[in-house]
Amino acid sequence: MSPLGIGSIVFVCVFGSAMLGCYLRTLLADHHLTDDSMRVVTMSTGLLTTLVAMVLGLLISSAKTSFDRITDEVMQTASKVVLLDRALVSYGPETTETRELLHRAIASAIDMIFAEKGSRLATLTAPERLAGMEQFQAKLRDLAPRNDAQRAFQSRALAFSDELV
User: Same structural domain for residues 145 and 69?
Assistant: First the structure.
């Protein structure tokens, strides 16, 4: 439903309730309209308003906390991908194909996250989703380091890829 439609329905409900309240007030006996009765209604309304404000505040706080946590996870994942790519670049030119596999796996993961409902990528099972990263890790393990520096970069890249998976 459109926002205008929702707003119209809310307006009609609130306006109708106000009109119903005005009509019901004329039906009330005089002893229900004293100052004491009005104060009780006012205090009850204030209490309910305060409770609703507290619940909405907690709801908004919870949503913000969740959003911040997800944002932090995305930032950490992105930094790990960059560090993994930099480790592969530092390893040497023989990691070109491995880096291309990484780029495809990450692009596939991004497509899955932002895929529209009903598309092929959104319906993949967990093993199908991990296939690209597993293929990347296998290629990474198959590298044959020629010196200690390459061994260090390979182990660093494997550690980052394990964290990403």
Answer: yes
Q: Looking at the structure, do residues 130 and 68 belong to the same domain, yes or no?
A: yes
Distance between CA atoms of residues 165 and 154, nearest Å: 16
Count the neighbouring beta carbons within 10 Å of the beta carbon of residue 5: 9
Q: What is the DSSP letter of 33?
A: G
Integer CA distances (angstroms), 125 to 80, 81, 129, 131, 137, in order: 24, 23, 6, 10, 19
Nearest alpha carbon to residue 91 among 133, 142, 163: 142
Q: How far is CA 78 from the centre of its chain?
A: 15
Question: What is the sign of the dihedral through the CA atoms of 10, 14, 15 and 20?
Answer: positive
Per residue in 88-103, pLDDT (tens digit) is 999 999 999 999 988 8
Residue with tokens 């099972």: 125
pLDDT at residue 119 is higher than 60: no
Rounded CA-CA distance 113/73 in Å is 14
Domain that holds residue 28: 3-62
